[in-house]
Amino acid sequence: MTSSTVGAAATAPNPATASAGAGAVAGKVGVAAAVLALLLAAMDATVMGTVLPDVLADVGGGAHGGYAWLVSGFMLAQVAGTPLAGWIADRLDDRVLAVGATLAFLAASAAAGLAGSFGVLVAARVLHGLAAGAIVVSSYVIVGRLYGPERRTAAQGMLSMVWGIAAVLGPVVGAAITGAWGWRWVFFANVPLCVLVLLAVAIALPGRSSDTPAPSGAKGFPGLEYALVTGGAVILLIGLQGSSLGLGVIAATAVAVVGLVLLALLRRFGGALVPRQVFGRTPSAGAALATVGATVVMYATVTVLPVRLAAHGASTTAIAVMVGVSAVGWVLGSAVSGGMVAKRGYRLPLGIGSVALLASTVFSATGALPWLAGALAGIGTGAVTATTLALLQDQAPAEQLGVATSAATMLRNIGSAVGVNGIAALTAALAASSHAENGAFWALTVLVALTVLAPALAAPRQRTTAH
């Protein structure tokens, strides 16, 4: 071999190295697209409260509490879309779900911005909810598959941070855009960002690996299970939101009980949309319970504490600080626990999260240091939900990564609804007492002990995966 040939060989690029480098860049772009899409969906869930007065003044809908459907319609549709997205994610290329969900979100944003009547706006918000539910599942599944079981906990901890960031940015950005250009541009602003996500997904996101096994069992769509999971969850949420939707106490309670009964039937008929491990005496069942318990505390805290602070003469700034530190706490809890699961297993981060939640409810019940109560609620919720998501995904077979992710998302939605509406109902039931809110938070302390601390103590010390 001549010296020139040797030199050419030495300087020629290695195809394998170049391919690996290109794949790494494409993977990073795909993750960035997933993060941006998730941020849009999460912010859309928090922005309506800020723009609602301007919306009602423009398109009406404030009579007889009809405005509640702008929030409830989004939440109920998100619950309906979540298990469907999980089922699709396990059967089709990740790009199909990501592109479809983003296109639906883009269409809903355009329709909301152009809405000339209250009914059209409600319909757009329902489509927003369906798309947001699919985007959440898609984002977590994309990151889970790109990073694999070994590294996905830390990466998904980053995704969980998005929720805390959105809780802060959503109202602020919504107010700023509304003040500058009007409420319609809150939705129009989503359109170019959705286009950016679509381009990133289409160009950079790799196709589904051929090594991923196809789901076992029935090939057709599990219609009965979907009816049970969505019908049960939606009916439960309607019951929990009964006061805002015009239902009486007795009617709302009856509706909520019907929802719980339908969800209980999943123990017998579930498996394709909700992993069977959730219904047995397994770590997954404990993770599901802890997810609900943690989100109940978080949303109860950020709902009731601001009202209490305002009643005691606190300034708007002080209230904003309390809500802000709870969101920052969620970010920190998610970030720290994501790395901790990979190194220390499930029990330690779950234990830290449950202790933080217990301390938060005690501070809330006693009325001491409300900003610390908010921060601890955020830290605890971030730590618990990031860890339980990892546990649910780890314990599910590879072909059920999508439905495991959608189950975790739906449990968070149920917990948030129980936290917002359940604490209000409990406070109203204790209204005869001068310390009604304190009693409600003492009840939450017991709830944390039973639904979060107990599963944390029983969780596996070491991380194990079923795939």
Task: Kindly describe this structure.
The protein has helices at residues 3-11, 15-59, 68-89, 94-114, 118-181, 184-188, 190-204, 223-240, 249-264, 266-269, 283-311, 316-344, 347-366, 370-395, 401-429, 436-458. By secondary structure, it is mainly α. Helix 5 crosses helix 15. The radius of gyration is 23 Å and the shape is globular.
Structural class of the helix and strand makeup?
A: mainly alpha
SSE string, helices as H and strands as E: HHHHHHHHHHHHHHHH
Largest sheet, strands/sense/barrel: none
Q: What's the end-to-end separation, in Å?
A: 48 Å
Report the principal-axis shape: globular
Radius of gyration: 23 Å
Helix content: over 70%
Mean pLDDT: 81
Total of DSSP H or I helical runs spanning 4+ residues: 16
Beta content comes to under 5%
Which helices and strands appear, and what pairs or packs with what?
Layout: H1 3-11, H2 15-59, H3 68-89, H4 94-114, H5 118-181, H6 184-188, H7 190-204, H8 223-240, H9 249-264, H10 266-269, H11 283-311, H12 316-344, H13 347-366, H14 370-395, H15 401-429, H16 436-458
Helix pairs in contact: 2-5, 2-7, 3-5, 3-8, 3-15, 4-5, 4-7, 5-12, 5-14, 5-15, 8-9, 8-15, 11-12, 11-13, 11-14, 11-15, 11-16, 12-13, 12-14, 13-14, 13-16, 14-15, 15-16
